[in-house]
Amino acid sequence: MPTARFLIGDTVMGRWPGSNLYYEVKVLSYDNKARLYTVIYKDGTELELKESDITLMPHENNSNSKHEKKEENNTANRASTITEEKTETESENQAGGRYNLRHRKDQGDGKTVELEQKTETGVLSQTKPPAAIKTTDLEFGGRVGVFFLMFLLPVTVLALLILCGQKDASLQSFPLELPALQSLWDWQVFGIVLLWLLFQAVFSLLPVGKLVEGMPLKNGKTLKYRINGFYALLLTAVAVGVAVYQEVDLSYIHAHFLQFYTSALLIVTVLSVYLFVRSRWASEDELAPGGNSGYIIYDFFMGRELNPRIKNFDIKFFCEMRPGLMGWVLINFAMLQAEMKHQNLENPSPAMLLVNIFQLLWVVDGFWHEEKLLTMMDIVYDGFGFMLTFGDLAFVPFTFTCQAYYLVSHPNELSLFWIITLITMNGVGYYIFRKANSQKFTFRKNPSDPAVSHLKTIPTATGKSLIVSGLWGWVRHPNYLGDIIMGLAWSLPCGFNHLIPYFYLIYLITLLVHRNARDERQCRKKYGSAWEEYCKAVPYRIFPGIY
């Protein structure tokens, strides 16, 4: 007769049906015939799980705590024997065959054997850490889609920069001939980009700022992160100030903008190859759930390893904000200087000032709240491959600056009415964005915090709750809504002569609509019937009045 691994009353980690997420559960009984454990979640939900879907609590000793305590009292110098058995590893998509979702009282004639709480010395067992689940739900059109995206994205950004730099930025005026090689590459520019990355990497390693733990990983461990981005931003500002005082011409960036982009693109490609190769030696619990399909092109694009590190240097966390966002601010400032130089202005135009100030506010806010990045999908779920590497080091600094780049060659006068309107619009968007994100972060950290304890919620079987009041009761993603309103305020200073300055806004809406769909799919798996109830309580996704 098979021996049960876990005893009645044991507190363990049980996998939630249809997902790769583990939550704290308590063992109630064991069906010896079906070989299923009946467990109860914190909210009272009872489910039946196989042994392969149960693992020990993080940092827990390999034996039952009560038994081990008695063992230590009786035989202090004798180590207990540990017998390790193999566990099944099944695909996430086979959840229906592995779980019985009936409550214990509805099990019919199935005989349930209550586990005895043993106190005598015996042979104990432990489970292996859960194996990485193979990715079967492919995004972006699967292998074919990501193959084309890897070429389409860099070419699209290059075309955008070419159009922004022309006097006539309409699509009809796009040059049919390829740019000359010397306009696309310069070794000095490449060296400057490398120095910029090294400069920011050194700042990120400075022993200033607090050391915090990230979200728990699949193996129950947590990684530590140095939160000093705001200090690095201040040091960067001082360095730029010194450069301006020494009369360094930052408009050099505008004059060699295409070469800066191609330099960044080469670095992205080399880094992506390195990340993919090193992921082959990563353990299974270090792999990302979305980049483990077994298809080389797809996994290269999505990223196989979740948190690639060189000792304590987290490559993904560094690239997510440091070089790209600070580069964004620096490029904007360089474009401001280039506008004054090209338009023979003593002071920057109101349109250029608004774009610089609005986007600087967003970047400063991001670094001030850097710790909250650790709860976002990019860090918690996505692997670090070509998609995020290109986004962080090339897409962000060279497309988010398109408004400032455009204004250098396409000045646009703003009336006092438009200036006040744009400031108000950006302020409203920022308030919604910051308030929503702060509420989410505070609620995740401590639902009993006075700042969020008044919010209405829907409990779920995972032990977590879903907010259904305040901003989060208005739409499901108020932070997305605030981001879009700000994006509109950043684009409007460029006027309405061309579509190019609105590229960021179009991209942002497309990205957030896609991310919303991915959020919905994952939350439906994670929360089950509670998510259906939540959708009825909060029917609008991003935009009020639009389902």
UniProtKB/TrEMBL annotation:
Report keywords, A-Z: Cholesterol biosynthesis, Cholesterol metabolism, Cytoplasm, DNA-binding, Endoplasmic reticulum, Lipid biosynthesis, Lipid metabolism, Membrane, Nucleus, Oxidoreductase, Phosphoprotein, Receptor, Steroid biosynthesis, Steroid metabolism, Sterol biosynthesis, Sterol metabolism, Transmembrane, Transmembrane helix
User: What EC designation does it have?
Assistant: 1.3.1.70
Q: Name one GO molecular function term.
A: DNA binding
Provide the reaction this enzyme catalyses.
4,4-dimethyl-5alpha-cholesta-8,24-dien-3beta-ol + NADP(+) = 4,4-dimethyl-5alpha-cholesta-8,14,24-trien-3beta-ol + NADPH + H(+); 5alpha-cholest-8,14-dien-3beta-ol + NADPH + H(+) = 5alpha-cholest-8-en-3beta-ol + NADP(+); 4,4-dimethyl-8,14-cholestadien-3beta-ol + NADPH + H(+) = 4,4-dimethyl-5alpha-cholest-8-en-3beta-ol + NADP(+)
Pathway-wise, it operates in: Steroid biosynthesis; cholesterol biosynthesis
List the GO biological process terms.
Answer: cholesterol biosynthetic process
Which part of the chain is the Tudor domain?
A: 4-62
* Parts of the chain that traverse the membrane: 144-165, 185-206, 227-245, 257-277, 380-408, 414-433, 454-475, 495-514
What does the similarity note say?
Belongs to the ERG4/ERG24 family.
**Under what name is this protein listed?**
Delta(14)-sterol reductase LBR
Organism of this sequence: Cyprinus carpio carpio
